[in-house]
Design the sequence.
């Protein structure tokens, strides 16, 4: 395989952090580090991986709480879609509201992702697919050659989809986003923000 994926379940919300890496160069993208930075760092050290970037599929607190610590540890940028800028900035108040704990200040965003972009990992790429609905700036990350799609909270293994009852969510946009990804090969393996992996066919 040209890309390998490690799934780390982190935090109170049992969120999936993914380490997507090139087995030759060991270059690694950290996707959705929701919490437990020490655990993520330990796995990276054990596997001798080389992190080059942190990406969030969307701005909800349970996908970004470990970002600041990992940025400092590896001196790497954190990137997200501009549509979720406001969610990142509101991280501390969201953590207080949902978990009742005090969080660190929100991470500083280094760059914004959009659908024109490809993220290089070694000799492979992850394509950005804009999939708004759950949040305005939700994205999926896709590699056609390996048939892998990291879906964030757009789509889950049991066919469940992301919540759209937030004031900034949009159910119609979510349906459009689902139609977009279901045009991909049915063999595509999906890696969601919570729960087990699956396929589009399933």
Sequence:
């Amino acid at each position: 395989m040209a890309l390998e994926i490690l799934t780390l379940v982190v935090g109170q919300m049992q969120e999936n952090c993914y380490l997507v890496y090139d087995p030759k160069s060991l270059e690694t993208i950290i996707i959705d580090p929701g919490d437990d930075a020490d655990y993520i760092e330990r796995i990276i050290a054990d596997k001798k991986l080389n992190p080059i970037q942190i990406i969030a599929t969307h701005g909800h607190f349970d996908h970004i709480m470990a970002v600041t610590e990992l940025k400092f540890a590896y001196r790497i940028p954190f990137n997200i879609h501009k549509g979720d800028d406001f969610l990142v900035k509101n991280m501390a108040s969201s953590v207080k509201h949902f978990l009742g704990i005090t969080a660190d200040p929100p991470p500083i965003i280094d760059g914004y992702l959009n659908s024109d972009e490809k993220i290089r990992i070694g000799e492979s790429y992850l394509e950005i697919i804009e999939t708004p609905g759950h949040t305005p700036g939700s994205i999926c990350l896709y590699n056609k050659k390996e048939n892998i799609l990291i879906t964030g909270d757009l789509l889950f293994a049991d066919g469940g989809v992301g919540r759209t009852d937030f004031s900034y969510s949009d159910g119609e946009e979510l349906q459009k986003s689902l139609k977009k990804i279901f045009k991909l090969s049915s063999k595509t393996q999906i890696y969601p923000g919570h729960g087990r992996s699956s396929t589009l066919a399933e």
In short: Helices lie at 37-46, 67-74, 85-89, 91-99, 171-181.
